[in-house]
Amino acid sequence: MKKLLCSSALALAFALPAAAQDYTPDPNATPGGTITITYKDDVATLDPAIGYDWQNWSMIKSIFDGLMDYVPGTTELRPGLAESYEVSEDGTVFTFTLRQGVTFHNGREMTAEDVKYSLDRVTNPETQSPGAGFFASIAGFAEVESGAADSLSGVEVVDPQTIRITLSRPDATFLHVMGLNFASVVPREAVEEAGADFGKSPVGTGAFKLADWVIGQRLVLEKNEDYWRDGVPYLDGITFEVGQEPVVALLRLQQGEVDVPGDGIPPAKFQEVMDDPDQAARVVEGGQLHTGYITLNVSTPPFDQLAVREAVNMAINKDRIIQVINGRAVPANQPLPPSMPGYTEGFDGFAYDPEGAKAKLAEAGLGDGFTTQLYVMNTDPNPRIAQAIQQDLRAIGVDVEIRSLAQANVIEAGGAGEAPMIWSGGMAWIADFPDPSNFYGPILGCAGTGDGGWNWSKFCDESIDAMATEADSFTDPAAPERLEMWSEVYQQVMAQAPWVPVFNEQRYTMKSPRMGGDDALYVDPVSIPVNYDYVYVTE
Predict the structure, then answer these.
(1) Is the Cα torsion angle 13, 17, 19, 20 positive or negative in sign?
(2) DSSP letters of 459-505?
(3) What is the CA radius of gyration of the chain?
(4) GO CC: one term (predicted)?
(5) pLDDT (tens digit, 9 = 90+) per residue, 268-314?
(6) Are 447 and 123 in contact (CB under 8 A)?
(7) Contact between 437 and 471 (Cβ < 8 Å)
(8) How high is the pLDDT of residue 5?
(9) DSSP secondary structure letter of residue 228
(10) What are the domain boundaries of the chain?
(11) Cα–Cα distances in Å, from 368 out to 300, 311, 371, 421?
């Protein structure tokens, strides 16, 4: 099913006009009302060029828009701020015609100049965007990245309603990239006025706008009455309460005080919830393009030695870790999840072999073991998973100190290269779009190794990077040769073992009885975790 969605999405995007992909508003939806969402941790930023975590992704997507978008609850592309677009025969020139009359939250009409400014901003090294590498195929990216130019030569304003983007090579993922939060269109004057605080006072064209933000307490979004899509959003507002432990959030949901627990169902309460028919009826399950993994910082001894990285891979008992999360996953043996095109069937990866792991450490001259640190997000079950990892490594002589921190602090340490090991849980990779390239560039490619990037292993192999670039230089994203090439990319990555792939997890969430809208909106594969633009209340 996922392969079909991936291949058909781009075929439709090239072949059909914008109207053919529009979304019909739910006839059962009742406009109005507000909902309450809880999170344990505060929100770090709402700047679309910077924000890149589970918690703020859907908030940013509701505040901003890009040229491309997705049909709600699916991975099917549709035009967003672009009313239509044309693609040259060689797949290197994209001409987008913008919708007329779209205004920012400050009241000013959006134009092609705003699109160019936004793309120049996200790729400018001074912005320190973790998503800059997504735009590497745009002509002029290398010059901007090196500081030789301050704008992308491949982005041209044709007129106020037309933007032309020229690529330096065909890029099978480009339309998906234009649907990422990083490609959101922002108004220059609002960014310049706010400066470094734009992430706390965002201005976009989205369905909701920021109404209030009390750091450490709550964040409130209100309906954009001038939103350019007819009929949505349905809700008048959303309140995100932070500082809420997941167990407390679940109790408040049971008492009717919360509508969706943003951190999901606490694993310790999962079986209790599923054993209660009334509660189980409100549980939403969905597949996801997800891998949970341990990063091994190859720039930090002793993880700069392949034998040590192999030893850690062989020491981890993945089946036991899956038991910690109530069996809601399958063991992973490679970066790609099984439902992703390019996944290598029959690839064994590293088998659980503690004795073999000890032999690898001896090979590296560390037969007596070593001491290291494992960073982990402090929301359950991640500390308990970290403890299981700690026990597995202790069994081969490795003494691990667990550093259990708020999500933002773990992300910061990973981006700065300060963490020898990170358990990615709670921040684990879920595809930004349904293509194998998305599991490489940001988290395993050389472009993601910079300060603030999401390649926390700091792994960089230029020959694999070149193969990845070649794999994306196709006009057909589903070409068998392309997917075979991506399979080889990930096999070569695993040969160097910068990660320990641990599991591929299913998503579970819960909603209050008054929440309406298709279940797919609550496990939306793109507007993670919830597509707020299309859910509604029934009372």
Answers:
(1) negative
(2) ---HHHHHHHHHHH--S-TT-HHHHHHHHHHHHHHHHH--EEEEEEE
(3) 23
(4) ATP-binding cassette (ABC) transporter complex
(5) 899 999 999 999 999 998 877 889 999 999 999 999 999 999 999 99
(6) no
(7) yes
(8) 25
(9) S
(10) 2-24+44-202, 290-505
(11) 19, 13, 10, 19
Q: In the numeric block, which tokens belong to residue 367?
A: 């037969």
Contacts of 142 by beta carbon, 8 Å cutoff, 6+ apart: 136, 168
Tell me the pTM: 0.81
Per the listing, tokens 């064209």 go with 205
Q: Quote the CATH superfamily of domain 290-505.
A: Dipeptide-binding Protein; Domain 3 (3.10.105.10)
Compute the half-sphere exposure of residue 28: CA atoms within 13 Å on the CB side of its CA: 9
Residues 6+ apart with CB under 8 A from 57: 51, 181, 527, 528, 529
Crossing angle (nearest 10°) for helices 306-315 and 382-394:
110
Is residue 529 reached through a cis peptide bond, with omega within 30 degrees of 0 on the bond before it? yes
Going 166 to 172 to 173 to 179, the CA torsion angle's sign is positive
Short-list 6, 159, 183, 153, CA closest to 77:
6
Write the single-letter amino acid at 423: W
Output the CATH code of domain 2-24+44-202: 3.90.76.10
